[in-house]
């Protein structure tokens, strides 16, 4: 039975990198059919909305969604509700995507590309599990007021016990399949809301006696990620902290252009996208790194379709290409061969 994939190329470099991921999927001759739609700035230009009804219908029909990236300075002056990023938040909410999995794996060939010493990051393999439906992103905006002669912005941070419990189970299950270590990150010493986060994680812990649960404040977690990142196995945290920490972890691997992600609902349907942004400054130049998007496609095959062998084949092909010394501009270093977006995609296909 064919699987339907809703493809959302998005903005900036999105169409270029998504094309390479589709090329790799096609090379595997899998029973997949594609339906293309618009999201973000491209959707705004065409329809006036960042998440138009046509895209909503296509995403709901699909078994999984493959996304490039959205946003760019072109749309920064629009009202907030009409900006490209609202399309991304909209599709996450519409599809019930509550769990964002962001693996940060350092390929041995890229150890010297990291800004940290090789001995600090060699062998790095962590997963950040980020909650997507609560926190300040889905709080109640109260706008900007003038108090005592100066502007003051207000927004609420909202966590629901059910949401924390749901993401906690995903994190514990993820840790159980890996190194059985889970670090929960909050800011309970200052933000009373996140005390609820810690309480619920502690309540869940007895259900997973084989997993060791620890807690860390977010500022310390940020420091520890650059001091001794290999102490972590699985990190679970909220929407805002996860957004920041996952980008930090991505740079430990040498380039954010290498990091995939998956956002899942309770049935395993997911939206798959690279961790990086739309990079409008290099859009159309054919120099963007497509590997994060290609690896996101591999995550799609594994998590939404259950095609483990096909997913592993893609991941092995990426490792082969890196071992051959091929590098896009973001990970290039002396002694390697500089290639463009399409050439990197072709190399992965050849390695398959």
From TrEMBL:
It catalyses: (2R,3S)-3-isopropylmalate + NAD(+) = 4-methyl-2-oxopentanoate + CO2 + NADH. Keywords: Amino-acid biosynthesis, Branched-chain amino acid biosynthesis, Cytoplasm, Leucine biosynthesis, Magnesium, Manganese, Metal-binding, NAD, Oxidoreductase. Gene3D superfamilies: Isopropylmalate Dehydrogenase. The record marks 137, 187 as: Important for catalysis. Mg(2+) binds at residues 219, 243, 247. InterPro entries: IsoCit/isopropylmalate_DH_CS (IPR019818), IsoPropMal-DH-like_dom (IPR024084), Isopropylmalate_DH (IPR004429). It comes from the Bacteria. Binds 1 Mg(2+) or Mn(2+) ion per subunit. Its cofactor is Mn(2+); Mg(2+). Its EC number is 1.1.1.85. One of its GO terms (cellular component) is cytosol. Pfam families: Iso_dh (PF00180). Catalyzes the oxidation of 3-carboxy-2-hydroxy-4-methylpentanoate (3-isopropylmalate) to 3-carboxy-4-methyl-2-oxopentanoate. The product decarboxylates to 4-methyl-2 oxopentanoate. Homodimer. Belongs to the isocitrate and isopropylmalate dehydrogenases family. LeuB type 1 subfamily. This is 3-isopropylmalate dehydrogenase. It comes from Tepidiphilus thermophilus.
């Amino acid at each position: 039975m064919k699987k339907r994939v809703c493809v959302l190329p998005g903005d900036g470099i999105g169409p270029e990198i998504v094309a390479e991921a589709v090329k790799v999927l096609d090379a595997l001759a899998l029973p997949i059919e594609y339906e293309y739609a618009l999201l973000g700035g491209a959707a705004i230009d065409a329809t006036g909305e960042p998440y138009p009804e046509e895209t909503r219908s296509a995403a709901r029909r699909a078994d999984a969604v493959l996304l490039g990236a959205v946003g760019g300075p072109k749309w920064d002056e629009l009202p907030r509700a009409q900006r490209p990023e609202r399309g991304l938040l909209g599709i996450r909410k519409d599809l019930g995507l509550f769990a964002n999995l962001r693996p940060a794996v350092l390929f041995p060939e890229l150890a010297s590309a990291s800004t940290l010493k090789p001995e600090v990051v060699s062998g790095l393999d962590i997963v950040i599990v980020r909650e997507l439906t609560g926190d300040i992103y889905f709080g109640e905006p109260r706008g900007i007021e003038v108090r005592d002669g100066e502007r003051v912005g207000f927004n609420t941070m909202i966590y629901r016990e059910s949401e924390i419990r749901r993401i906690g189970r995903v994190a514990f299950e993820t840790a159980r399949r890996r190194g059985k270590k889970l670090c929960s990150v909050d800011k309970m010493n200052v933000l009373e809301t996140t005390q609820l986060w810690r309480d619920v994680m502690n309540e869940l812990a007895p259900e997973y006696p084989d997993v060791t649960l620890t807690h860390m404040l977010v500022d310390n977690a940020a420091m520890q990620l650059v001091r001794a990142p290999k102490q972590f196995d699985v990190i679970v945290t909220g929407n805002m902290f996860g957004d920041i920490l996952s980008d930090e972890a991505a740079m430990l691997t040498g380039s954010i252009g290498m990091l995939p992600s998956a956002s899942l609902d309770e049935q395993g349907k997911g939206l798959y996208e690279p961790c990086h942004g739309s990079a409008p400054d290099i859009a159309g130049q054919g120099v963007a790194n497509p590997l994060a998007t290609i690896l996101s496609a591999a995550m799609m095959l594994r998590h939404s379709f259950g095609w483990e062998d096909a997913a592993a084949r893609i991941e092995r092909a990426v490792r082969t290409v890196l071992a051959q010394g091929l590098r896009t501009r973001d990970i290039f270093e002396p002694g390697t061969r500089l290639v463009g977006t399409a050439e990197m995609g072709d190399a992965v296909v050849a390695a398959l």
